[in-house]
Design a protein that fits this description.
This protein is α+β, with helices and mostly antiparallel strands. It is built from 10 helices and 24 strands.
Length: 461
């Protein structure tokens, strides 16, 4: 028996909503035309009505289909936008797979926003797509834009520096000095005037885009890298002593007379590890001392909470944004030469072929005997020691032997070795040069000792 022909109904917005509700799933436009037995003229009316309803948020368009939001499954998560422009919704429910979002379906959302999306149920289950229908929380409170042209006295046409934000802005600059074309501005979004055009208010002028200082500010602002510490963190840091006191090293091993040295780059300002190698009758002794930050940073304190939020220090060509205030990062917890410092120590004997013995892990007070650079150490190993490295040359030779043993043992274990040169940036009279840094054996020496110390700690734990 042939299927019963569906009776066409008179077109109206009310009847259209009823049809979508009855279907329980999105309908393609051609199916909607069929419901109302639409001729060419009515198809134009239906198409215009659908567009108005989508714009007004009454229905949702999913490709060529239209549906009620109540009839569509939803997903809440974070919008991840790739450099290609496409997006993926990273669900808050880890059991759900990432949902593909076409740029035309972002619904005004920006990269990193917490959003709600509806899922297109008309597509194949193995390739679902979504459409953002609500922005719950903006990830970007401060938008970076590049000035294109002046519209009138205090209004400029700009576009975001982030290529993943394909829209334009009209910026009110009455609160800052008049910018020039190409300047980078930090602005606060106000509202979307029309699709693809946002009205914003200028917060500050970062500077000319070509300036290195402006580029640093651009990166810091784009990635929300904090430039200031909260007041509670500053107060806690300021309350710390200028130097460790004898009370601080009570119960610690006193290694102040041991010839520990730090080896870092020329521009390093904070020194968090020191090493010492001693040739013994049956092998070697390696001492690795790490600054004891935890002594000054109680768990749950403002310093601890802020360090957890930052996660690491950020190094730029012209500046550093440290994980801890300078009183700690460049002061109490920096193993500067000839001043006492608190440290955690991994003290391990090694056989003549680099086999580790039983390590000792303990708290100590140390005093670095020298602040050496990689270039200094390499020159000394190559036969040209200077006044700093000449007295330490026997120890550096022992350290070289032990590091080579460690390398041989790791290679024999089938280790992966990523010998990737580090980019070095130099600024000389506003001329910026970027080149690959030279990788020396002195770099590897410290790397091998840090790996060995971490292995001993891991085995201990």
């Amino acid at each position: 028996m042939p299927p019963k022909k569906q009776t066409s109904r008179k077109f109206s917005k009310k009847n259209l909503l009823a049809a979508l509700r009855e279907s329980g799933a999105p309908l393609r436009s051609k199916n909607i035309y069929g419901l109302f037995d639409a001729d060419a003229a009515l198809k134009k009316v239906i198409k215009s009505t659908l567009a108005q309803m989508v714009e007004g948020g009454e229905i949702v368009q999913m490709g060529k289909s239209y549906g009620l939001m109540d009839n569509l499954p939803r997903m809440t998560g974070t919008l991840d936008v790739r450099r290609s422009g496409v997006g993926y919704l990273i669900s808050e429910d880890r059991r759900q797979k990432d949902l593909f979002i076409h740029p035309s379906n972002f619904g005004g959302a920006w990269p990193g926003d917490r959003v709600v999306a509806v899922i297109d149920t008309t597509r194949k289950k193995d390739a679902p797509e979504g459409r953002v229908v609500e922005v719950l929380d903006r990830a970007t409170r401060e938008l970076l834009v590049r000035v294109s042209r002046r519209i009138h006295q205090d209004s400029y046409f700009c576009h975001p520096t982030d290529s993943r934000m394909p829209f334009y802005t009209v910026v009110d600059t009455s609160g800052i000095p008049n910018p020039e074309k190409g300047d980078i501005l930090s602005v606060a979004p106000v509202e979307e005037q029309e699709k693809g055009l946002w009205r914003c208010t200028a917060l500050r002028r970062l500077g000319e885009e070509r300036d290195l200082a402006t580029q640093e500010l651009l990166v810091k602002t784009s990635y929300s890298i904090p430039e200031e510490f909260p007041a509670a963190v500053v107060r806690q840091a300021e309350a710390l002593p200028a130097q460790p006191t004898p009370e601080d090293w009570a119960g610690r091993n006193d290694l102040r007379r041991l010839f520990l040295v730090t080896i870092d780059g020329e521009t390093a300002k904070d020194f968090d590890d020191a090493v010492y190698v001693e040739r013994q009758e049956n092998g070697y002794r390696l001492v690795v001392a790490i600054a004891d930050v935890a002594h000054y940073v109680p768990e749950g304190s403002p310093l601890d909470v802020e360090a957890l939020a930052r996660g690491n220090s950020y190094y730029f060509p012209l500046s550093v944004e440290p994980m801890f205030p300078e009183a700690l990062s460049n002061g109490l917890c920096s193993l500067r030469p000839l001043v006492p410092r608190l440290a955690m120590v991994v003290d391990t004997p090694y056989s003549m072929d680099g086999e580790p013995g039983a390590p000792r892990l303990y708290n100590a007070v140390i005093m670095s005997q020298a602040r050496l650079t990689y270039n200094q150490v390499q020159s000394a190993l190559d036969g040209a020691p200077d006044q700093d490295t000449a007295p330490l040359l026997p120890m550096l030779r022992d350290a070289e032997e032990l590091a080579k043993l460690f390398m041989q043992r790791r290679m024999a274990r089938g280790c992966l070795d990523f010998d990737i040169p580090e980019a070095q940036i130099r600024v000389i009279e506003d001329i910026i040069s970027v080149h690959a840094g030279t990788r020396l054996f002195s770099h590897r020496l410290i790397e091998e000792f840090m790996i060995a110390a971490n292995e001993r700690v891991a085995e201990y734990l």
